[in-house]
Amino acid sequence: MGNTHWYTMQADEVIRKLETNADTGLSHAEVKNRLEKYGHNQLEEKKGVSPFMLFLGQFNNFIVLILIAAAIVSGVLKEWDDALAIIAIVIINAIIGFIQEYRAEKSLAALQKLSAPFSRVTRDGEIHSIPSRDVVPGDIVLLDAGDYVPADGRLYSSYSLSAQEASLTGESTPVTKSAEPLPDPSLPIGDRKNMVFMGTSVTNGKAKCIVVTTGMHTELGKIASLIQGAGKEATPLQHKLEVFGRKLVYVCLGIVALVFFLEIWRKGPLLEAFLISVSLAVAAIPEGLPAIVTIALALGVQRMVRRHVLIRKLPSVETLGCANVICSDKTGTLTQNEMTIRKIFANGKTFDISGTGYAPIGDFSYRGIPLSETDHQTLRKVLEIGVLCNNAHLKKIDSAWKIIGDPTEGAIISAAAKADVCKEALEKKFPLISEIPFDSDRKKMSTMRSMPPEFLVFTKGAPDVIVKDCTKIYVEGNVRNLTEEDIRVILDKNNKMAGAALRVLGIAFKTLDHLPEKPTPDTIEKDMIFAGLVAMIDPPRPEVKDAVVTCHRACITTVMITGDHRNTARAIGEELGFLKENLKVIDGMELDTLSDETLEKEVPKIAVYARVSAEHKIRIVRAWKKQGAVVAMTGDGVNDAPAVKEASIGISMGITGTDVTKEASDIIITDDNFASIVAAVEEGRGIYDNIKKSIHYLLSCNAGEVLTMLFASLFNLPLPLFPIQILWINIATDGLPALALGVDTVDPHIMRRQARRSTAQIIDRSLGKLIVLQGFLITFSTLLAYLYVLYGFDAAFETFYNNWFNGKTAPYEFDGDIVRARTIAFCVMVISQLFQSFNCRNARRSLFAIGPFTNKKLLLAVGISLAMQVSIIYIPYFDTIFKVIPLEPGDWILIFGFSSLTFIIMEIIKLFMRRVEVPVGVAAAEVAKIAVDEVNSMYATIRKPIHYLLSCNAGEILAILFALVLKLPAPLFPLHILWISMVTNILPALALSADTAGSRAINLPDRGSAKRFMDKRFFALILLQSFLIAFSTLLAYLYVLYGGIPFLLAFYNDWFTDKVIPYGLDGDIAHARTIAFFVVVISQLFHSFNCRNATHSLLRIGVFTNKKLLLAIALSLAMQMSVIYIPYFHDIFKITLLGLEDWVAIFGFSSLTFILMEIIKCFIRKK
Fold first, then answer.
1. How far apart are CA 1137 and CA 1160, in angstroms?
2. What is this structure's pTM?
3. Containing H/E element for 486?
4. Is 816 exposed, middle or buried (CB count within 10 Å of its CB: 0-12, 13-18, 19+)?
5. Is 351 left (phi over 0), alpha (psi -120 to 50) or beta?
6. How far apart are alpha carbons 237 and 316 in whole angstroms?
7. Phi, psi (5° rounding) for residue 479?
8. Do residues 1147 and 1083 touch, judged by C-beta distance below 8 A?
9. 549-574 pLDDT, tens digit each
10. Residues known to be catalytic
11. Which of 504, 498, 497 shows the shortest CA–CA distance to 461?
């Protein structure tokens, strides 16, 4: 069929040759046969990479090739265990990389299917919207302005049709089309005026065409090789990461070289130095990051689909997070796009119409009275004109009335049906000859119909435009000249109805003796007869108002753009919250008077634009962009495409949008809803945030590994980790948690932040500092655990200090088992990084505020990683490969204790970092009020955990300091202090940070702007309460140490007679330390109640008003009790069992802090 000269044939001959029907189209059975015969209507695509080649591609990586070289070197030196382990890790890494990339490819392919174009075809006498790939030769395709042509077709009929064929011919000027046959069979493509071609678009008019060729047989298919083989476009984020990755490689190679030479300098084995360097190179470079970014983008985009947002161009996801201006159409986006005519103005009267939606059920009345016959005839005239200048159809589908076509035109059809005006009967009576479609510049539409021997012209459009075209008026069945008074009344009525948020259309007509040879708007739409006004309501979408408030809180400027009357635009803008103080409305005429420079200055002050054209939209976008804004612009009509393309983020409507606008856009909103645009911005911010979390996690973990090995080399320590262990850490901790962070839930406060700058680096200075800090904390935890086991806790730091500063070479003299120390360091490194994954969920907010269970994928990833780590410790063959030994239960307590330090310290740091950010933007006044209220509430609350932590820590320090001054044996061991910080500091502090506002912690006077967060009174209170904790602890310690009530006298005699340690004591020092240990813990738990308020009694605040605090105290107390009654812990903590009388003493001494503070509060209140 591809060589047939279809353009030389009559349209009916083409119909016969293709065995189809112009009215009913093909049957579904015939379509099935033709699909089998001709195949799908699509161009051949470049074949994707097969799964096998995708897997092999995982080995085409510089880092992987280095690992393979390391395995070969190990094999040559007969280090078979190392060689096999490295090969196994390379294969596991390849499998994980393959799964990630394969999943990303499938996700992106699914998204491409979602954005595939659709076409309107007639089949079995019904109009259907089908995927363009299912079009077959013989299909009858209906084309409108803005549609893409799905296949090569011969025009059967057309009205004012023109097409843009630049994609095929290179000619940028639209080509006028007509259905007439052409005689010359040798015409080039550009001159075949009765043909439309695949890949071109309709710029004006409408047509019915017969599909003649599809797929690779089309003209575009013949040159398909020109558009195949295009590579994938990297997103700006992927490009930034690629640049960053190259820089990181250089930095890492420098560190690796330093470690290598340090090992050589230490006279370590050359193979070990080489393997350590290779392992660190692998550890330092996050090779899985590109795949994680792709998956995060793909899965985020899939999540957007569920929120009615379809991403056409992946880079727009990143731009969405930067959007700070949204310019939105009104009709259908801000409103429900379900028009109902409420009023008709004709014959000098305003008539009311009842009914809702499109159901043709309702009555007409004038001031509550049924219509007279004259009035009824006048209304019928207006509605008949509206119906004959109309392309919509009213249908009942599943007991509901639906409109096929434009909702505005549908409202006229529905109102006409209420007056028994039948569209089908009128169209048969007055056949359509030609049509001048609506466009936003003319703001009107006209049809020309036959009424032999005359012709009729029907026009509808903006009332102020229609009135200018009219010279006569239809009144009481007669036509007379239109007077200035008539014009004044019409425009006044238009303004009043528009001010009531009604959309108003003017209706006009005229009779012609003959049609011009080439009908144009200038020749047809003049000297018209004014018939009346129709006013319809399009109710605002209920969710839009909240979406606008959300935008303002997120410092996103919202702009409404509409073709409606200024008063209608103002009413809707005020109702939906677009118009705030000092913001104004302007219309297209005012906009025309502003120069580009003036508009650029004025654009931040304008929130609503009325009566605008497509050119105005482009000017608005450019003015905002010159202000440095990232602009999202919505559009649906073909004329909107240039403005949509000009915007930073072009948004088209999925329901009412034309193919041309969709093609020009970056994003399609499938439900045409403004709230979905806001959801898209939220998701865009969330996706970018999640990618940052993954990057944050990978780089901080890698930094921890590199710094651990670097410090071990610098301090001349036995290496804490073997190369094979470093390689395993990357497998066990990098991939899965990083991927889970990439699909984390969106921060609920993300739309209270300002939009990030489009030029902002993904790894900015603050994130860089945080990565280094957390990398150092992981290193600190790992080396601390290593030294603890290697040297024994009592002398760990002293031995290490002496060894290092005396210049002793490794291995040092140590008491511990180095294999056990390395095993514990290995596990601490892994589990520290798993704890770090929770830190990375939010840089400021506590995990407990976010919710530990809100990312179940992360919990699963951490669980799998932990299971993998435990397996290599206890599965016999692996312990040899990884040079580890099985661990005792007590070792795991030690591991989790040291590993949790990273998490605990970061939670404390987050307490100090948290502040409410007050946005500065269009909605500054409203947002500032919300923010100030929240700051006032949080200011008092945030001081509670700080007050608690500082006073508890100071109490511990003072207890030890006073013991030294008083020459007492140390009441607490370092491990006791470490445990106290873990047990009593964190949980109650977190609970206090979420205390009720009513408890008014540290009830200080209102602060001024210069008032310090921690003033003198605050510090005095901390010092007093820390002294009370120290006092209670030492009192209990001395009580047990010297035995009974006379302990103070005994202590006084010992100290003042300068007896040397140990004193003459009657008690058991281990027992005394146990009591002191418990008094410190329980004193601090009692003290958490003190910190709820500095002046009010706990009984007045309410003991049960902070249930989180009660739970935290119960958990802390349970953990402390477990230490005393689980036998294994006795040796670790060097404590003894306690009897009932001991617990009475402990709670008695511990309650002193609480009781004394309640008494002090009583005096403060009286004062």
1. 35
2. 0.66
3. helix 484-499
4. middle
5. beta
6. 11
7. -110, 130
8. no
9. 999 999 999 999 988 888 889 999 99
10. 329
11. 504
